[in-house]
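Dear Dr. L.,

I hope this message finds you well. Following up on our conversation about the binding site, I have prepared a predicted three-dimensional model of the protein together with uracil. For your records, I am including the exact sequence and ligand specification that went into the calculation, followed by the structure tokens. Please feel free to forward this to your student if that is useful.
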Amino acid sequence: MVDIIESKRDGHRLSKDEIEFFVKGYSKGEIPDYQASALTMAIYFRGMDKQETAYLTDAMMHSGDTIDLSSIAGVKVDKHSTGGVGDKTSLVFGPLVAACGAKLAKMSGRGLGHTGGTLDKLESVPGTRIGLSEQEFIDQVNRIGIAVIGQTAEVDPADKKLYALRDVTATVESIPLIASSIMSKKLAAGSDAILLDVKFGSGAFMKTIERAEELARAMVEIGNSLGRDTRAILTDMEQPLGCAVGNSLEVKEAIMTLHGHGPKDLEELAINAGAISLTQAGIAPDLEVGKKMIAKAIADGSGFRKLVEMFAAQGGDSSYIEHPEKFPLAKRQIPIYAKASGYLHRIDSLSVGVSAMKLGAGRKTMDDVIDMSAGVILKKKRGDQVEAGEILAIAHTNMSDISDALEMLENAFVINDEPVPYTPIIHKYIH
Ligand code: URA
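The resulting structure of the complex is given below.
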């Protein structure tokens, strides 16, 4: 292990054997944290080339169980978002692609800090099970085309250990380490085709479009080099996605979007991402046809019905999906008013996300309990014209001491005199 650390410290390439030796030894507890920390720091400074990153991903992916989806007929598609504020895309995208005939066997995560997670949103519908057995998972996808569950403990144990170590050794922000961490989990989850939604901007992991593109290209290369059709889109997370931030509030917005009444940016993202997945699955010959198919699944209600079916299949009370007014509302709803007239220039995602977390919608640590009804509803989006005194957003909470959260939410909005040009939600498609 000392030789491996020394080699990377001095800027050399690591071989497949060296990388496997490290991943196996560290997963089994035979390599101590201090040596793993030294190596991750050496990787942080020296980087890894494409081949090394692919070897690292492959070794991590095989550190635990890999899910065999071969008993599901057809191309299995998956979508992964690098995370953001108000990102409920999977709840719209998933049922839409499944309604068009794609097979989506998806493992999702929980929210942490200012970012939300699909599993928490699913659990805002009473009764929903996110812990299906592998067989139940496969059977459900075969039966209705879609299942969304949590990652099992046996998938990618190397990543769990390494990520926890990187978190406390300032080695998270390394493209080869992030790319291998995300891709090893996606590859272990077994789908044939992967679409990566790489977010950039204030509320995203990657703050600039350049860094997001670098990460996206690294992940697309890994996926393709390991035999999966992998593509990526770079999407805007400077402002929250859609208008709802917070678990049941986001589920309601996803339902509205499936009814054709959702916010423009969310609908645009779901339609475009859906079209890409349909082409990956061989269901649509090109993106234009794919978009039309997805738009039809919104217009004819088949996407909505698929969401109802999915919740029912996973034990959820699907009457909440059919009657979203059943979701309990938070006791307090506090408006945030515009302090000036003009154009809404900016809605800082990070501030909205942290504010929603402080209102009860998110976790500071993995053990925190979340309030499903808490969060923020934006009444205006970037580019909108506003009058002083108009409502910009409404904070939903059951908590009393929230002055911090409200101040942060107020400061998230920047109004000035200049009109703001429209920018599409998707900035680039990498394939
Ligand atoms: N998300 C992951 O799963 N891994 C990283 O390294 C960073 C973000």
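In brief: The chain has a mean pLDDT of 96.

With kind regards,
A. P.
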